[in-house]
Amino acid sequence: MSQHDVDIAALRKEYIRGGLDESAVNADPIVQFSSWLNEAITAEVLEPTAMVLSTVSADGAPSSRVVLLKGIDDGSLRFYTNYDSRKGRELTLNPRAALLFFWPELERQVRIEGTVSRLSPETSTAYFHSRPFESQLGAASSPQSQVIPSREELDQRFAALAAANAGRTRIDRPAHWGGFALMPHTIEFWQGRASRMHDRIRFRKSEGAWVVERLAP
Ligand SMILES: Cc1cc2nc3c(=O)[nH]c(=O)nc-3n(C[C@H](O)[C@H](O)[C@H](O)COP(=O)(O)O)c2cc1C
Hints:
By secondary structure, the chain is α+β, with helices and mostly antiparallel strands. The protein has a single domain (8-129, 175-214), classed as Pnp Oxidase, Chain A (Roll). Helix content is 25%, strand content 33%. It has five helices and nine strands; from the N terminus they run H-E-E-E-E-H-E-E-H-H-H-E-E-E. The chain has helices spanning 29-42, 86-93, 121-130, 133-141, 151-164; strands at residues 50-56, 62-68, 71-73, 76-82, 96-103, 108-118, 177-191, 199-206, 209-214. Strands 1, 2, 3, 4, 5, 6, 7, 8 and 9 form a nine-stranded antiparallel β-sheet that branches. Strand 5 (96-103) and strand 6 (108-118) form a beta hairpin. It is globular and about 60 Å long. The chain starts with 28 loop residues before the first helix and ends with a strand. The relative contact order is 0.19. The structure holds flavin mononucleotide. Flavin mononucleotide binds next to strand 2, strand 4 and helix 2.
């Protein structure tokens, strides 16, 4: 224990809020997920739609970062990003990905695995224009994931784009910016319980139907 004032290995918390039973989960894991998400929103969890997105490079190295869930449609989870970013390029080469939600206030975790596809240009454009003008400028002026010389250079790019679009309320969506939809094949709901005897209920798609199983904690 050299770098911390507290012994982080000794931090312990009992999970006592509730249980999760096979008989109580919805047969459709997307419906179950939506209901947990609504409970996280109602509980005023900070950033309830924040999720860790993990991608894998062409040579098999995983990487993770947070993105925001922007919709659940036709059984898939949507998010938006730069297609030329590290994650965007990795997903283009290898569409297999994982999402993770952690709602500590509810002692809940949801793990989702599946395959992504790009949203249609029309859907991406509609969402891009629903964002504040400054966010549109930010997305268009940042070469996400690339090395840049300085903060000043980034600010200059933003200012130049803002000046070029003075008086407008929207800009064209850059072709390299848009959405992905992750279609899950596995969704696991984790509910913290006392004595580390947590509940884990996993749904996995098998021949078009969801199979529900309990996993050991
Ligand atoms: C709370 C939070 C929300 C974020 N939401 C997004 C998002 O929706 N889309 C996005 O591209 N990056 C988002 N980011 C930034 C990413 O975590 C990441 O820094 C960026 O996308 C570059 O990742 P990459 O280089 O692996 O592609 C968010 C970060 C945080 C902390």
